[in-house]
Design goal:
The longest helix has 24 residues. Helices cover 46% and strands 22% of the residues. It has four domains: 65 residues, Arc Repressor Mutant, subunit A (Orthogonal Bundle), CATH 1.10.10; 76 residues, Arc Repressor Mutant, subunit A (Orthogonal Bundle); 119 residues, Trna Endonuclease, Chain: A, domain 1 (3-Layer(aba) Sandwich), CATH 3.40.1350; 175 residues, Trna Endonuclease, Chain: A, domain 1. It is globular and about 85 Å long. The protein starts with a helix and ends with a helix. Helix 19 packs antiparallel against helix 20. The strands form five sheets. It has a five-stranded mixed β-sheet with strand order 7-8-11-12-13, sandwiched between helices. Strands 14-15-16-17-18 form a five-stranded mixed β-sheet. Strands 1-3-2 form a three-stranded antiparallel β-sheet. With 480 residues, the protein is an alpha+beta fold.
Length: 480
């Protein structure tokens, strides 16, 4: 008789369909008999159910549970027979191991609301968290390092920033030609019970319908894939969403766009055959856009090294944005504010790190700018938007970030003997209550400084760069 326990222990985890085929072939029994034998498997063989097509079960030996070989086999099985789960995993992997929680549903083909025959995305995420395939890390979902050992937080962040930038450009283009209405676009929102990166109603005559005399608008929906090598698996989430919506007869008319920087010929043909509008950035927004987003991704990903060793490239990047970008770029400028602060410190410090993630005492924090000087370490928090920082925000910064980061610095021999300086930069300034709160603080073990737009202008005079001073004035100190 075929020794199932031995084969699973030696060869590794297997799906029930493969085990049934092996039993039938080796023992010459029926599939029903093979299934009964599988159902009688006990410790040390464990199983996972509910993730795979055709009610298949994943069998594994308990000694490898949650080890790399367990996850390797599980991910391979999901790719084969659990494609909706694999799409979630693959999307996080595409984003270098981390993705914002609000964005992940758009990169899956699982509904955000109840839809007959489909499991909701929130249920699937909980199942993946329970298996420790992904982790809930506050604002982001992250892949287990045993699955994605090359996680790169800054690279993930660069894709998020550039995706947002391109979606804003798409919106300006669409409303500029009258395809959509002004102020109707939503981002990472629902259409047809699925999440999309971009959704906007359209009243173009060929898209609208009429129901009992009432106009029913069409919709423009879009997803975005940029900054990484793309294969057919990477676009499956997009095509499957469209396939489901087209099968629903009551669905409003919609135009699907895929915003991307590059596609190989096979993927390009596949999308065209499905009636997808392929928004290649160079073709849609103008020559040079592909190079611009490549420069953006590279600059954000490697910000510390670039600002320290080649700061002119940051100034060149700002020039490129000004010359190529259509519409408003306020959000992008805000996202790049920590690079502006990094540029200032990079002119003076010994080493520089942008967007560093620290893990200490089981907690994780992000440091916007970490600048190491001869006798001090500067930790800068950067808020590059118009709204004023409130007292509550400042209290949270002091109690949750400064507290933990200071202990992390003290535990690091390279920093422990230096002075600690915590800076808070805000282009929108601070409320009166926040200023009063900060002035009453008199920390003995570190120095605290809050920097509004006027103080930024003073600091810009400390470095000899007229271009940088102009950038601060144009982008971050409009009121001056």
């Amino acid at each position: 008789m075929y020794d199932l326990k031995k084969i699973i222990e030696i060869e590794g985890p297997k799906l029930s369909s493969e085990l049934i085929a092996l039993i039938v072939e080796n023992d010459k029994v029926s599939e029903e008999t093979a299934r009964k034998r599988l159902s009688r498997l006990k410790d040390p063989i464990n199983r996972i159910k509910g993730l795979f097509s055709d009610n298949q079960t994943f069998f594994y030996h308990k000694k490898i549970y949650k080890k790399p070989e367990f996850y390797d086999a599980l991910i391979e099985s999901l790719e084969l027979s659990g494609k909706k789960y694999y799409a979630i995993i693959n999307s996080i992997q595409y984003h270098y191991g981390s993705i914002n929680k609000d964005r992940l549903p758009a990169f899956s083909f699982s509904p955000t609301k109840n839809l007959k025959g489909h499991k909701r995305i929130d249920t699937m995420i909980r199942e993946l968290i329970d298996l420790e395939i992904i982790y809930d890390n506050g604002n982001n979902y992250e892949l287990n390092s045993k699955i994605c050992p090359k996680e790169n937080h800054q690279h993930s962040k660069s894709l998020e920033i550039v995706e947002n930038f391109l979606l804003n450009q798409l919106n300006d283009w669409a409303r500029g030609i009258g395809l959509t209405s002004y102020n109707t676009a939503t981002y990472y929102s629902e259409f047809g019970k699925f999440s999309w990166a971009y959704v906007s109603p359209s009243y173009v005559s060929t898209l609208v319908k009429y129901n009992k005399g009432n106009i029913v608008p069409g919709f423009v929906v879009a997803d975005v894939l940029i900054g990484n090598t793309k294969n057919e698996v990477d676009i499956d989430f997009f095509l499957k969403k469209i396939e489901v919506l087209r099968s629903i007869t009551t669905m409003p008319t919609f135009l699907p766009f895929l915003v991307t920087d590059y596609l190989n010929e096979n993927i390009f043909r596949k999308l065209k055959a499905k009636g997808i509008i392929i928004a290649l950035v160079d073709k849609m927004f103008g020559h040079g856009y592909k190079e611009l987003i490549e420069a953006l991704i590279n600059s954000i990903t490697n910000a510390g090294a670039i600002l320290k060793n080649n700061p002119q490239s940051y100034l060149n990047l700002i020039d490129s944005i000004n010359s190529l970008a259509i519409g408003k770029t306020n959000n992008l400028r805000g996202d790049l504010f920590e690079m502006a602060v990094g540029y200032y410190h990079g002119q003076k410090c010994k080493s520089l790190n942008i967007g560093k993630i620290i893990n200490f005492q089981g907690k994780q924090r992000e440091i916007d700018v970490l600048a190491v000087y001869e006798n001090k370490v500067v930790i800068a928090e950067c808020k590059g938007y118009k709204s004023k920082i409130s007292k509550d925000e400042m209290e949270q910064w002091v109690s949750e970030k400064i507290y933990l980061i200071r202990y992390w610095l003290n535990a690091n021999e390279a920093y422990a003997q230096k002075e600690f300086v915590f800076e808070h930069w805000s282009t929108g300034g601070y409320t009166d209550e926040a200023v009063e709160y900060l002035r009453k603080l008199h920390p003995k073990k570190y120095k605290l400084e809050f920097i509004d737009s006027k103080k930024m202008l003073d600091k810009s005079k400390e470095i000899e760069s007229k271009k940088f001073k102009q950038i601060l004035k144009d982008y971050y100190m409009i009121e001056l």
